[in-house]
Write a structure and sequence with these properties.
The complex is a heterodimer of chains A (308) and B (363). With 308 residues, chain A is an all-alpha fold. Chain A contains 14 helices and 2 strands. Chain A has a two-stranded antiparallel sheet with strand order 1-2. The longest helix of chain A is centred in the first third of the chain and has 29 residues. Chain B is mostly helical. Chain B has a domain of 229 residues. In chain B, helix 2 runs antiparallel to helix 14, helix 5 packs parallel to helix 7 and helix 12 packs parallel to helix 14. The interface between A and B is large, with 47 and 45 residues.
Chain lengths: 308, 363
């Protein structure tokens, strides 16, 4: 019906709507990882944190009836996992990449274990704000139904730019990321700084996970996240460790992820599964274009293990 | 480091030290393993299960009977092969975690090879399947290695992204061009045919894939520790700049190593098709590739140590069914235990070299 009137225009509109919907987990995880990496440590375990966050948010929302408590619980679990990562990496001669992989497997395993009873019941989900009241076209209205969590993420990105660049806290964090020796010389404990940065990163990733189970797709199952967490980690590299660029990159990736369903909605079902892999291919392609074996990346924290 | 501390140490002392080091490599991971079993026992106790029952059923399910031994060894076959996918590049200092992708690509290619030659004798088909699986898996991981060397793309992230791309390709082909029209509920390719299956080792229910795994691990061990190629790879893994100074070409080293690594995981995919599933579908993506990462780290990337570790971890997987039936634990409990083991083993890395005295006594 409306498809016929919109014709192929339905595709870009659906992609735009998808970008807003799908990008939120990317946005939160990449902002969190951005903070962690700016302190000089990489946490690859955020995939596990995302899934744990999704499970906890759904469970808490189901048990208490309040989705906002669910978001908080997801953040709390995320920061616990972040603290675990940071304290293990704080031990001498432990590789942060390997610990990240281990926590990725541990987090997803634990979420599947604890989340078994949550597959059936339906929990209250987060509200959205309808910005499309002026339009008669259902697709446009669907696009403009924007979730509060997305708006929080949008506000968070410039806030983080400001905090990292101008506050005392941001300066200490960046010092630890650029030169651990300098931070030590100033009398700060590098491990303590990174512990806090990884916990904040875990908190945000957990909140990103709560979006998956409480907004879109809005339920809990074991196939909920398929690599969004790790894609977001790659996205931080693409965004040059800049929170504002993380925001734009998340939108781009959300749009790429929405391409398959958007094309299917206008009857193009050829290559549906390949279009689903579009964000991963895009990530890989962007990394190929922007990385170089000869120089380190502009904006890369000097203490980061994947840069050295 | 030791030489600095004891510049005048005698040969006997050095030999004792070496033994002490060897003991450390056994004692530390073993205590980490015991520690994780205790942690997992506490975890299930929190859910009102008796940890002693847990350990009993785990032992029963993994190594208690001839049946469970066979189940364990069958499961360890793909684990040895996918663990090689992480262990070989690790010699070069690379962290590859995309074994699952190479396994899926290898399975697809092996199936395609078998379906392409319907009238060839089984032996020819099996060789073609193995070659197709090996080559495709190898190219898949060599891509991650090449991107690392020529474009500076982080191989850990790219290899994991390639897993999701491989899964998408598999789904696309299984739902589309390669779909068997009679597979309604679970889209699959056509069967490769009973005659082309590689069968079991005589007298057992263990398929020949287990032998493939043992041979591959042994070959990898010889390659790394007893050839010039392996020596060069270990130099490059220790210090890339030093390797360049002595004239090693690091690029080909990385490409060949990654090709062999991915080839092993691709072979795991071929084995799963030709010995277990008989066709390709989404059933293949059960996480052997990811568990292989754990096996490799637990074995400290030593190809020979992969074999016992893979059997141990395969045993944990094999006991999952019994834990589900007898204790009502969810199937994910195996993943929780694997996660705990992985974390604990990495934490124990920090202990190496700290217990000189203890190591010497143990020797």
């Amino acid at each position: 019906m409306a498809d016929a009137t919109l014709g192929l225009w339905g595709v870009p509109i659906a992609v735009l709507g998808g970008a807003v919907r799908v990008s939120t987990p990317f946005l939160f995880v990449s902002l969190g990882e951005c903070i962690t990496e700016r302190s000089g440590r990489i946490n690859l375990g955020l995939e596990g944190t995302l899934v744990m966050g999704a499970m906890c948010a759904y469970g808490t929302s189901y048990l208490t009836g309040s989705p906002w408590l669910g978001v908080l619980a997801a953040g709390g679990v995320g920061s616990i996992l972040g603290a675990l990562h940071a304290s293990i990496c704080g031990l001498p001669r432990v590789n942060d990449i390997a610990v990240g992989i281990a926590l990725m497997l541990f987090g997803t395993g634990l979420a599947f274990y604890l989340g078994k009873p949550l597959i059936e019941p339906s929990a209250p989900i987060l509200p959205s704000i309808d910005f499309g009241w002026w339009s008669d076209v259902p697709q446009v209205r669907a696009v403009l139904k924007i979730n509060v969590l997305f708006l929080v993420g949008v506000a968070l990105a410039p806030l983080l730019v400001w905090a990292l660049n101008t506050t005392r806290w941001g300066l200490i964090l960046r010092t630890a990321g650029e030169s651990a020796d300098a931070a030590r010389a100033m009398g700060y404990s590098v491990n303590a700084i990174r512990l806090r940065a990884t916990m904040i990163g875990g908190f945000l990733s957990g909140v990103g996970g709560s979006f998956l189970s409480l907004v879109y797709p809005g339920n809990w199952n074991e196939g909920l996240s398929s690599g969004q967490g790790i894609t977001a980690v790659a996205l931080v590299i693409f965004a040059r460790w800049n929170p504002m660029l993380c925001f734009w990159a998340s939108l781009l990736f959300g749009g790429a992820a929405a391409l398959g369903p958007a094309l299917q909605s206008v009857g193009v079902s050829q290559g549906y599964y390949l279009f689903n892999a579009a964000p991963y291919m895009l990530t890989l392609l962007i990394m190929i274009i922007t990385c170089s074996p000869k120089r380190t990346l502009v904006g890369a924290p000097a203490e980061l293990s994947i840069i050295k | 480091m030791k030489a600095e501390k004891q510049p005048s140490s005698s040969a006997a002392r050095a030999a004792l030290d070496r033994l002490g080091d060897a003991a450390e490599y056994v004692i530390i991971p073993a205590s980490a393993l015991v520690g994780s079993l205790v942690l997992f026992g506490i975890f299930v106790a929190l859910f009102n299960n008796n940890p002693l029952d847990l350990y009993f059923y785990m032992y029963q399910g993994a190594f208690g009977t001839w049946f469970s031994w066979q189940n364990t060894l069958t499961r360890s076959a793909p684990l040895i092969l996918t663990a090689l996918c992480t262990a070989l590049p690790a010699q070069l200092g690379m962290v590859i975690i995309g074994g699952e992708g190479a396994l899926l690509v290898g399975a697809l290619a092996a199936t395609a090879a078998a379906l392409a030659m319907p009238s060839a004798p089984p032996f020819v088909v099996q060789i073609a399947m193995a070659l197709a699986g090996f080559a495709s898996g190898g190219l898949w991981i060599a891509l991650a290695g090449g991107l690392r060397h020529y474009r500076g793309v982080n191989e850990t992230i790219s290899s994991l992204l390639l897993v999701y791309i491989a899964l998408a390709i598999l789904n696309q082909l299984v739902e589309g061009p390669m779909r068997d029209p009679t597979s309604l509920n679970k889209p699959s390719t056509r069967e490769i045919g009973a005659a082309n299956m590689i069968g079991t080792i005589p007298g057992t229910d263990i398929h020949w894939g287990f032998a493939f795994g043992i041979v591959a691990a042994a070959l990898a061990y010889v390659l790394i520790y007893h050839t010039v190629f392996g020596f060069a790879a270990r130099i490059a893994g220790g210090n890339v700049r030093a390797a360049k100074v002595v004239g090693l070409s690091v690029g080909p080293l990385i490409l060949v190593t990654c090709f062999l690594a991915g080839g092993a995981a691709g072979l795991a995919g071929m084995v799963e098709v030709a010995a277990v599933q008989g066709r390709t579908n989404a059933n293949l993506a059960v996480g052997y590739g990811f568990t292989g990462i754990l096996v490799s780290f637990l074995a400290r990337h030593n190809p020979l140590a992969l074999i016992p570790v893979a059997i141990l971890v395969g045993g944990i997987g094999a006991s999952g069914g019994l834990l589900q039936r007898r204790l009502g634990l969810p199937d994910a409990s195996v993943f929780v235990l694997q996660g705990i083991i992985f974390v604990t083993v990495l934490m124990s890395e920090t202990l190496y070299g700290r217990f000189r005295l203890l190591a010497r006594k143990a020797a």
